[in-house]
Amino acid sequence: MITNVPTSDDYYTSGKELLNFAWDATASLLVEFGQAGYYGFEPADIEEMSDAYWAAAKRTLTTALTVVQQAVELIIKGRIVEISPYLLISDIPARWPSPYDSTDPIDFEDFRTIDAQDLIRVHDTFAQKAFNAEFTNKFNELRKIRNVVMHSVGKKVSVTVAEVVDSALFMHKALFPAESWFTIRREFLRRAPDSELGASEFATNNTCHEATIVKDLLQPAQIQAYLGVDKKQHSFVCPACLDDANTDGGFEYRLAVLRPKGSGTTELYCPVCNGIHIVRRQPCEDKNCPSTVISEESCRCLLCTTYQRGVDDPA
């Protein structure tokens, strides 16, 4: 008898936790760099300081990338466990823990499991749908980098912050296509240790801040693929995120877009809450605001966020 047999959710949960760990380290660097002005740097000085800042962040970035790879390995194991957890067991039967040495059941963790290099092959052999070539190539590239970083000082490894962000978002989207990473990220922030100190109140603010930085950092095609929004499209404040955020210091993160684009569209999509919100298409009552997108939920303009007196509160 074998006990402590893992479930796919066990691996998915652990994998997402590692993704969040890697993301947290990377996002912290981006947020800190974005605050250079508060440290007295002028725009010209920031550009000059940039190379030195990211050079100093090399070890953090390479470590974050190796953690992304480890997260992906765990999630792939979860995919394999959905088929059968026993596919993870490596070695010939003669090397398995003996069922005759004790009357106690064998713990699954006593078995040696398959190596990372075999995960894709095992999955693709038994799964109904194999991973595509793009995913496999990306996985193998990350594994090579991880091996260099873990087994040497990694002097020849150089990665940019954009590459780490892209890798994390690519892998999450490939493995959990129905999910929005920033929805997952917000939940992690709500459960983080500093939530006990009251930080959870700012989880939406911080998530929207990170999403805004990423939107500026990555290319339009990447933003479309990972966030599901057109980077060049006019964006608006999400009414649900606005309602959930701490607005004592204001809240002006505009990440939601109309779907589809057009003057008659009445649906707004937000990549942070991953929700569709109904809007009214009528001019904002503030004559200085060009918006024609008014929230049905809160009766607020979703560009300047002012309440609309001439709109009946649906509540």
From TrEMBL:
Q: Which domain of life is it from?
A: Bacteria
Q: What is this protein called?
A: Uncharacterized protein
- Tell me the organism: Paraburkholderia caribensis MBA4
